[in-house]
Amino acid sequence: MTAVIEVRDLSKSFGSKNALNGVNFAIGEGEIFGFLGPSGSGKTTTINILTGQLLPDKGESLIFGKSSQDLAPEDLKRIGLVSEDSGFYEKMTLEKNLLFFSKFYGVKTVDVDAILERVGLLDSKKKVAEKLSTGMKQRMLLARALINRPSVLFLDEPTSGLDPSTSRGIHELLLELKAQGTSIFLTTHDMHEATLLCDHLALLNQGSLVEEGNPQALIQKYNTDKAVEVAYKDGHKERVPFEELSSLGHVEEILTIHSCEPTLEDIFIQLTGGKLNV
Ligand SMILES: Nc1ncnc2c1ncn2[C@@H]1O[C@H](COP(=O)(O)OP(=O)(O)OP(=O)(O)O)[C@@H](O)[C@H]1O
Ligand SMILES: [Mg+2]
């Protein structure tokens, strides 16, 4: 695998606070990488180092094989960043903001309506940016990232605070970008989103990686207690080990059978004793 993004032994402290302790990972072309960890675990700090906004104390961070500290304007054009504090011109409409950013990125033709439609903001194109809700701002940031079609896209919690149908639209969009070869670095608190979208994920706790891998492989790795939960029409439920499934009686009384696989949250709790989704 040729790594598009790579960090080696990355460490960063703020005063006495160790924000990152020797973090390593690599992301390949067209991969969606999920970076999961509770609040304060070091996710945004990692993005800030990778995008050259913050210097690490130790270790290396590379994009396109180049140190983040040496990224030239041409490289930055290939990198999209969606985070809470990337700004818009507050008094300008969404349409004008996107037209401005397309000029700024040197993109000659841009279909602003199509982009706004993709993020569910076409009806708001004449609204000024300052009037947007948090969820709308996040979608607008994604719209801006879509203008220059970056090779690498950093998304810091892109769906937090969004309703399920808008989140689904964003998921579709991310999968489309991935299909076009975009590598996506995604931080999220949403376990379902991570399991659904990510090719590879890393669990971060207090600045250290505690586990990483493909979501399904991780779930299987920790699925030691192989069993299903059988729910019956009369409302009672039972746990049935895999090896006893074939001898299950009263099949006509069964309403549903669910697997008892652990979730990413269960795995995180098992590894750290703490919750992921905080
Ligand atoms: N500029 C800074 N000065 C001092 N401490 C900082 C600074 N930036 C981050 N920290 C601290 O470093 C740790 C990691 O912060 P970071 O913002 O990377 O966490 P996060 O995983 O992105 O959290 P969240 O999910 O809440 O966004 C936290 O303890 C935070 O308080
Ligand atoms: Mg953060």
Structure at a glance:
The chain has 278 residues and is α/β, with parallel strands linked by helices. 30% of the residues lie in helices and 29% in strands. The model has no long low-confidence stretch (mean pLDDT 89).
Descriptive notes:
With 278 residues, the chain is of the alpha/beta class. The chain folds into 3 domains: 1-78 and 150-214 and 263-278, Rossmann fold (3-Layer(aba) Sandwich); 89-146; 224-260, no CATH class. It contains 9 helices and 13 strands. The protein has helices at 43-50, 73-76, 94-104, 112-118, 134-147, 164-179, 191-197, 215-221, 264-272, and strands at 3-14, 17-28, 32-36, 58-63, 66-67, 79-82, 152-156, 183-188, 200-205, 208-213, 227-232, 237-241, 254-259. The strands form 3 sheets. The chain has a 6-stranded mixed sheet with strand order 6-7-8-3-9-10, with helices on both faces. β1 (3-14) and β2 (17-28) form a beta hairpin. α3 packs parallel to α5 and α4 (112-118) crosses α5. The chain starts with a strand and ends in a 6-residue tail after the last helix. The relative contact order is 0.15. The model has no long low-confidence stretch (mean pLDDT 89).
